[in-house]
Amino acid sequence: MTTVLIADDQPLQRFGFRMLLESQDDLTVLGEAANGAEAIRMTAELSPDVVLMDVRMPGLDGIEATRRIVATGDRTRVLILTTFDLDEYAYAGLRAGASGFLVKDAQPEELLSGIRSVASGDAVVAPSLTRRLLDAYARHLPTPGPDSDSDAPTAGHTDARLDALTEREREILTVVGRGWTNTEIATRLHLAESTVKTHVGRILAKTGSRDRIQAVILAYDTKLVEPS
């Protein structure tokens, strides 16, 4: 059973999420928080598997609440809900340690799948948001000058973090960085989805990446993927 805490300042939104989640045999709602401070307190008390976190709430917002929850080192993971026109919140959430981002108009199946994926240790980013989110991240990367001693890889050189990867693993890390899902990778590279999951797991282990989002950041940092 996956346990969930709903954090949203809109009572009707919380009610809708609760109805959806409790219609599933494997999901249960432990409680509801109306703001970030309540989310932090209730997470400490209830230790849910996943916090479904709204961003814009009165008082302490969802980004800061996420940062404080993640900082405790507890097992709880945070799935942030955002909107198409607020990409900067998704970027801030990534930096705060969220394990996933979905848009509020996602299909119910997407939300349920996202919660289950985050609870199992995977990371989720809405496909519609992925490219803009990652490009926003890339724009924050420092641009080394001509005299810089930057460790960023250049032509003919590889980043040490990639040395342990096989050619196939590097290929998969590249497309993960482009926002492809496991299903898309399996289809386009003619692999079984279970094989893709195995490759992704090995990539995370070999590179020391906490989750899929951190692997995406690695793909940008090492120039496997360039911002559009």
TrEMBL record:
Where is the organism placed in the taxonomic lineage, from the top? Bacteria, Bacillati, Actinomycetota, Actinomycetes, Kitasatosporales
Record-annotated Response regulatory domain positions: 3-119
Record keyword Transcription present: yes
4-aspartylphosphate: residues carrying this PTM: 54
Identify the residues that the record assigns to the HTH luxR-type domain, covering every copy.
Answer: 158-223
Q: Which UniProt keywords apply?
A: DNA-binding, Phosphoprotein, Transcription, Transcription regulation
- Which superkingdom is the protein from? Bacteria
Which SMART domains does its entry note?
HTH_LUXR (SM00421), REC (SM00448)
Q: Name one GO biological process term.
A: regulation of DNA-templated transcription
What this protein is called in its record is Two-component system response regulator
Q: Which SUPFAM superfamilies match?
A: C-terminal effector domain of the bipartite response regulators (SSF46894), CheY-like (SSF52172)
Q: Which InterPro entries does this UniProt record tie to the protein?
A: CheY-like_superfamily, NreC/VraR/RcsB-like_REC, Sig_transdc_resp-reg_C-effctor, Sig_transdc_resp-reg_receiver, Tscrpt_reg_LuxR_C, WalR-like
